[in-house]
Protein 1
Amino acid sequence: MITTSYVAQAKGRTPLVCLTAYTTPMAKLLDAHCDVVLVGDSVGMVLHGLPSTLGVTLDMMILHGRAVRRGVERALVVVDMPFGSYEESPEQAFRNAARLMAETGCAAVKLEGGEPMAGTIRFLAARGVPVMAHVGLTPQSVNTFGGYAVQGRGEDGERVARDAAAVAEAGAFAVVLEKVPESLARRVTSEIAVPTIGIGASQACDGQILVVDDMLGAFTDFRPKFVHRYAELSAEAEKAVAAYAADVRARRFPTADHVFGDTPGAVARGRGA
Ligand code: KIV
């Protein structure tokens, strides 16, 4: 089983492989290949059709966290703390992180935010809650940023660098760095003591993470620059569904292969009872 200490010590070694998952079957598929499986709050947009991650609740994260944990034997399972579940106070964060860990069996939580969250991360880490931090573009702050633009260009790079330094110093065991320029990712990676895990942050990071549905091509209408599509699942699924619909309408499905006889073994041309 991969631990948070293993991840923390992987800095500068073979890049850490991380993907999101939200269901047991996908978690089973990822387990042999990934160091970290993140139950991201992206689940709200990916599986529930929400317009942003802001509507994701703690109960949703617990439900999907449990499902993923059931499918994983080897990888480190990290569950996102949703918007509103940790920002109020370190005590609120601890209460909800403890629920996430106790009710899902995950080994760590992830929360968004830099310097302002450092005190909370320190509080959690000192009380048995390993924290993966997330700086740069933090999607829960979409209304503050006014969108999902690249963060940390030019002078703004100082802010992101300070954020990463603050959360690492507070005890985060790894830091997700989202949508920042390559030069800044390189700087932050060299300046902080724990691994950086990039998403839209170049090869300069100590590891990479993507939303699994994005890299599998599960959407036709979402093609961000930082994602390489390793498959075209939506096109394949569309073809399969169209073929099924045509077969049903033309009475080509089901065939004798899919039909049961009156007694076990009595299937005339089928494959079994
Ligand atoms: O919610 C999410 O999926 C994430 C990442 C992809 C980093 O936070």
Note: The beta strands are 16-20, 36-39, 76-80, 108-112, 131-136, 174-178, 196-199, 207-210.
Protein 2
Amino acid sequence: MSAHAPTDTIAAIATPPGRGAVGILRLSGPRAFDVATRIAGALPAGRSSALRAFRDAQGRIVDQGLVLCFAGPRSYTGEDVVELQGHGGPVVMDQLLRAACALGARAARAGEFSERAFINERLDLAQAEAVADLINAGSAAAARAAQRALDGELSRQVQGLTDELMSLRVFVEGALDFSDEDIDWLAHDGLHARLETLEANLRRLRADCERGRRLRDGLIVTLTGRPNVGKSTLLNALAGADIAIVTPIAGTTRDVLREHLDLDGLPVTAVDTAGLRDSDDPIEQEGVRRARQALEQAELALFVLDDREGFGAEDAAALSQLPPQLPVLRVHNKCDLSGCAPAREEIDGQVRLKLSAASGAGLDLLRMEIRRFAGLGDAAESPFSARSRHIDALRRTGEHLDAARQRLAQKTMPELAAEELRQAQDALGEITGRVSTEDLLGQIFASFCIGK
Ligand code: GDP
């Protein structure tokens, strides 16, 4: 760990901005009890609460509420922590924060409480990230996955792999010491079998992390196609509410609408874009420009067309305007009018769905297809939440293991194999923060909210 134990005391309003029944000011650090005593008088014993008047630095009463004390190291941050639970008005909370700062604390940066929990080894990095993921979860399933990561599920798996890797390194480095003797330790079948098992476990963890990342980050899906085919109606049907303005006049959708949907646990940002067509109307032209911008960020395009008309030349032209690498799912809408039953068809590996956005028939097929695309399929849950940072670390771990295997097979320079294994372990260590840099920590904690 690169960071040093902090010596100052931090304070932050831990409840969201605005008005609420209760507002919480949180203090952490060596002077937390001292600052709290000057605001609230005698403190209650640890882990019990007391009702107190809260005073500012000049001794004026600004509020009254509950005081809770947690003596370090058995606290969230590992330091002495106090919570002052007052009335949740912005003015009251601001006065309390000012009082704390005037009496010896300083305003905390975003994520600084969790950063201290990490520095004091109350949480590892993956768990600290899970705290933020839990707060930001876009669906109940994402929240449950974050809770499991916070509970240490991801960290335990990473630790398991680290232990396997460690014992492999001990074996290889031990064998290097015997390299003058004619026993060929490094060609030993057991070694290769262990390396293979390790690689298989790594792949499994990576697949779990991919699902966990999906649940955390969700999927950006764009609805596209010619005007009037029913994109807005489909978005409304998926969202279960009237968000887009639906009219029978072509070119109604002039702006880019974003809607956050919970697709059986998968958070989806659905983007409804202006019909991709040439127009003389400057407002519609602007809509088309924004549509193209939104398409650049999308991960999946639902290409909507009118099933009565089928896939025509105009559709082909609209389809050709999509970014070439963007995966496309064809949605034949208005099947109530074409007289076709809702269906999923696969032609030359290209999936197309027939449904009716207006009646809702076939929408379940679409939901399922999107989940399948996201790699979630029928799995209702992911074992834990994860981030692309974790997946990247696992990918690099895999690359080093692969390189180590090749070096071992060549038998020429086993030291290089040992070095690859060391680097694999370092990459793995980045997930839980055993190996980290100030830069990385700064980046991670800055994305947290203030007071956490
Ligand atoms: P957009 O321009 O692609 O967004 O199309 P809209 O969603 O505004 O729909 C255009 C028209 O088609 C509206 O009158 C909708 O009510 C109608 N519509 C959309 N989907 C369906 C459907 O599945 N069945 C039927 N019968 N009408 C639909």
Note: The radius of gyration is 28 Å.
Protein 3
Amino acid sequence: MITKIINVTGNEVSSNDDWAKEAAQVIRAGGLVAFPTETVYGLGANGLDEEAAKKIYAAKGRPSDNPLILHISEFSEIKDIVKSVPDVAKKLADAFWPGPMTMVFEKADIVPYGTTGGLDTVAVRCPSHSVARALIKASGVPIAAPSANASGRPSPTLAEHVKEDMDGKIELIIDGGACDVGLESTIVDVTGPVPMILRPGYITKAMLEKVVGKVEVDPVIVATKPDPNLKPKAPGMKYRHYAPKADMTIFEGKSEDVVSRINAETERLHAEGKKVGVMCSEETKAMYKGDVVFSAGKRSSEAEVAHNLFNILREFDECNVDYIFAESFESDDLGMAIMNRLIKAAGYKKTKV
Ligand code: TXA
Ligand code: MG
């Protein structure tokens, strides 16, 4: 299959545009279209068509028990795909939709088990990206879309990343430039008595609690090592994810201690002829002796760090480093989402210095 790429830039996009009509045709015919959202690129198919969903799993190499998120263009479209909309969900939708938040509901019968990984619940998101919304509207169906990476690789934040992983496997890539947020949406389960975060993202626990009061966090998210007794409520969270090819370790501690420790490790590996990559902050970038040193951004700007994270992980693969050392980006806000991705990328290897 030849994968076509269409560039769609500018704010003035509509579901009546030629690109939207062409992409919608592919979706309605059961094909796959990768498209930008404000979080990461999604790999879209008709979410009500089990056969189309199967193609997503095949293109990504994704285990079939890992459910897909259904994307809608307006809140009103939700009534077709869920059993009911609890009050907390209405409040959260009011506050954060369209935007980088996904909610898990009891599914309506029309949603096939092929898209929910066999679950009786369905994850729904209303993205804010104008290209995503125009595509969904033009298609006239909810679009099932996981991140458009090959299973296990960092999520794509540029159309080039999608091309790396999906070229020849899907009909169409809509190139809308870089994704703003850079991390996948916050997932909130609203089926229980208290809303629970199943995956941290740009919408933080504090932001959710401002709207609906107490919010819980799936214990798996904050685990510092893999625990066979903890079963994540979002099935996808159990898989090794975001993994760069090189062996990666995170170092946590006072900034100067982390710098000297990483430099000491780097010198040791240089003596063995190894190539070392470092992921750090703007403040410390000049202090490292690694072969490739990427700053994720200023410590004061967590949004910048989130935005750059997946791109940097992919860059390390391009540079063929043998080892990656990363600073820790722990914090109460976006730090939970950033560290959730980093710790998985590092296979839970984190050292206190
Ligand atoms: O920002 C995002 O959410 C992006 C863009 C494309 O919208 N999508 C995305 O999809 O990250 P994906 O498939 O890479 O991650 C979806 C996560 C998986 O961990 C999956 O297990 C979980 O959502 N999930 C989906 N349906 C679920 C359900 N019914 N119950 C619990 N978790 C669910
Ligand atoms: Mg994903």
Note: Residues 37, 39-40, 42, 66-69, 102, 104, 116, 119, 121-123, 125, 145-147, 184-185, 187, 198-199, 233-237 surround threonylcarbamoyladenylate (ligand 1) (CB under 6 Å).
